[in-house]
Amino acid sequence: MADHDHDHHHHDEHGSELSETQLRVRALETILTEKGYVDPAALDAIVETYETKVGPRNGAVVVAKAWTDPAFRQALLADATKAVAALGHISRIGDHLVAVENTPERHNMIVCTLCSCYPWEVLGLPPVWYKSAPYRSRAVKDPRGVLADFGVALPKETEIRVWDSTAETRFMVLPMRPAGTEGWSEDRLADLVTRDSMIGTGLARKPGEINQ
Amino acid sequence: MFREPWEAQAFAMALALHARGLFTWPEWAATLGAEIKRAQAAGDPDTGETYYRHWLKALERLVAEKGIADEQTLARYYNAWDHAADRTPHGAPIELRPDDFE
Question: Which residue, of A48, A68, A211, B63, has the greatest Cβ tally within 10 A?
Fold first, then answer.
């Protein structure tokens, strides 16, 4: 965009301003629309879906079901893409979604060191820290330190396993079901499942930690 | 979440182009990863705040590589939009007209 700067001198106070980035996005969208690669209405629909419909609640429902339905738990751990799709209300986005299960012996954490691949369909859009270089590099080198920053202390004996996402395989963590939730409905259980607990930087909330 | 509307637009364009088969996720991840590395090397703090800038860069690169629009075409549309913004009174919707390209 080298020839851009010099024609900025004629801006006056009556004209509107678009930032360099906004101009690039508009340029790209116009070209793609004119060539028939995208439809502006479809783009709006994608944005709306991600802003309002897809979020960690999707994943929480999956986790709660796995906690209460052993057959579903098995299916989820065997092939999460298929198991999640079978629930019907979550549309498939990427290719292989893999669910990794936390146990007293092993805690799982997900990261994408290369870019920020993320299981959008179950967690929505990633938080800023997930996309940051400090998390991406430290999660692998010092997972216990990262967990401490998130206020999570695990027993020394618990192994911490870090799963590095790729474009082909994205992970979600199946957190441990908190004690004292026997007999709870899936709906109630889903309230205990936080986004961070499915990334592995947190644990599911205990019954006393939610506001009734 | 998106902090500005353009981030959402850039996000949606990548999903739409992928759905149309223009690129695979591995291609996307490789391109985005390369843009992030390039930005880091150029001094980007890479705190996650600039993530969608890299995302947009990756989109522009793939669109050029796939022969949809080269740098010159992107620049032409960029300047046209800039022109449209200039002639549009503040507060009115900015729309592109053929004479913005002149």
Answer: B63
